[in-house]
Every structure is written in C-alpha cells, then in structure tokens.
Specification:
The protein is an alpha+beta fold. The chain is 32% helix and 30% strand. The chain is built from 9 helices and 14 strands. Strands 1, 2, 8, 9, 10 and 11 form a 6-stranded antiparallel sheet that branches. A 6-stranded mixed sheet has the order 7-6-3-4-5-12, covered by helices on one side. Strands 13-14 form a two-stranded antiparallel sheet. The longest helix is centred in the first third of the chain and has 18 residues. The radius of gyration is 22 Å and the shape is elongated.
C-alpha cells in the first residue's frame, strides 16, 4: 500500500474489529477536527502536540475495551520537564485534553520528559460510588510500550498499541488477545502477528478506509468489522461549574480579590474560556444556594 496513494482521514471516529483467525480484538481510531480544536486552545510546541495526541489516542482506544458508562481519564504525572498530560473521553465519544510543561526547558529535555513519570488511568462509571484506578510507571518506555506492559503484567493479555501523530491529525490502533481463550499456540501466533504489524508504515495509519487498511495488512485474516462511532471535542466547562469554583475560595477571599480588581476571572484549563465575575455576580453566587 503506497503512502502516496493514501487519502488522509477527515473523520473523527473509533471502530472495533476482530481478527477471528487469531482470536484478537482490535480498535482503530482517527482524530482530526477534535484534535485540531484541542490544539487551537493552547500554543503547544510540536513535541507536546505529539504527546497529547498519543494520550488522546490511548484514552479513546482503552475506553473501547471496557463497558464505559461514564468517563475515562488518563493522566501523566511527573516532576520533570513535562508537568502533566491529561486525556479524557466519555461514553458519548466526547474528548478533551490538556498538557502542561516547563516553558524554560529545551526541546531535547521535553523529548526526554516522559522518562520516570507515571500514567494514572481512572474510570468513572455511572452508578458506582468509587472510580476504578490503575497506575502505570513509564520507566523510560513510550506511552504505547508502558500500556502494553501494563496489560501483560496485570491482566496477562498480550496487547499492542500503534500511534501516529502528524501536525493536527492523530490515528492509532490497538490489538489485544481475547481473554478466556485457550490456545496453546497463542504466544507463537501473537509474535507472528506483531512482526507483521511492525512492518506498517506509521503514515498509513491515517488511511481513511479502515476495512481496506485492515484487509491489506491482515490479508489471510477473517476480519469482523463493527460499526464505527463518531468522536468530537467537548470541554464540559460551564458557568455553574465556575461559580462553584468561586464558592470554593470563599466569600472572604473573593472580596479581598475584588478590593484589588474589578472582577474575578476564572479560566477553564481545557478550552481556555474565560468566565468573568464582577462584584454583583460574586454577591449573587454567595447568596444563592449551590
């Protein structure tokens, strides 16, 4: 499949599939407008765009492996050059993401910034009192390698992640051995499958036809492809949430700020939208029950 003949994907979608001959399930995702919108909210350097794209891909792929009835968040935490990476998706396919980094470090330091950090995966399910959380140390691995290692160690499920991020496009896929399948040749078959996957040119992950892409690279497979699902950016911030943020700082602190400023401005970290509250609005917040 020549990359020169590829038509780049313009969709924001996620689609599940099964490689039935190998008893492997998969998910393939394309992020275009949603990723572009997220990048437009902040001036990210290229390396941070790539890391954020990979996190958004990871969250979207992983959300399809669980019966999500709420939201999933993947967060990278570190004391190094990269302070934070966050990607979140809900059961309606709505995405948002954020990156924070030390603006005083070099690009080389940012490239090495994932080294000793930690990935924290949190699933908030509706009607569950407590979220489910897993922690994955990177230990100088890539995001894809760390997640694959986690599944192998914690759930004994061989898993592979492939990510491709170019400018404001991000595409990727996940392959995972189906659980509870007794196959004595599983390890050999999986190794052969991954050898085949490693030959894929990363640029071809942007191909706009999932069926053709999968059929080309898994020629001898019986591929079962499920309906795709649309994805979109959605921040989720609102005036009421920002009013609650004002309540958290308290009436006394709010009035102290208003002695120096005409209004209190609360900014959403994700979408960079500014919410301004003057003295009258602040008084109304504290006089009205939440």
């Amino acid at each position: 499949m020549s990359s020169k003949k590829l038509k780049m994907s313009l969709s924001d979608s996620v689609q599940k599939f099964i490689l039935e001959n190998n008893n492997v399930r998969g998910v393939i995702v394309h992020l275009t407008q949603s990723f572009r919108t997220i990048l437009e909210k902040h001036a990210y350097p290229p390396i941070m765009q790539r890391y954020l794209g990979e996190m958004l891909l990871a969250a979207t792929l992983l959300a399809e492996t669980v019966k999500l009835s709420g939201r999933m968040t993947i967060q990278f935490q570190s004391d190094g050059a990269i302070k934070m990476l966050v990607a979140q998706i809900n059961d309606e396919g709505q995405l948002r993401g954020l990156a924070q980094w030390d603006a005083n470090v070099s690009e080389v330091e940012l490239k090495n910034g994932l080294g000793e950090g930690m990935l924290v995966m949190t699933v908030f399910q509706k009607h569950h009192e407590k979220p489910m959380q897993s922690m994955v140390p990177l230990e100088n691995k890539t995001i894809a390698e760390a997640l694959a290692f986690y599944f192998l160690q914690s759930e004994q499920l061989p898993t592979h992640f492939s990510f491709a991020v170019k400018d404001d496009m991000a595409s990727g896929f996940l392959l995972q051995v189906m659980p509870e399948h007794d196959d004595p040749d599983r390890k050999t078959r999986w190794t052969a499958l991954i050898d085949q996957v490693n030959k894929i040119d990363a640029r071809e992950l942007f191909y706009d036809n999932n069926a053709s892409f999968l059929q080309y690279y898994f020629l001898d497979e019986n591929i079962r492809l499920f309906d795709s699902r649309d994805l979109a950016f959605h921040c989720g911030c609102s005036l009421s949430k920002m009013e609650n943020a004002i309540r958290v700082i308290g009436r006394i602190e709010a009035n102290l700020i208003l002695k120096e400023k005409a209004e209190i401005v609360v900014t959403c970290e994700y979408c960079n939208h500014h919410y301004a509250f003057d003295r009258e609005a602040i008084e109304k917040i504290f006089e009205t029950p939440p």
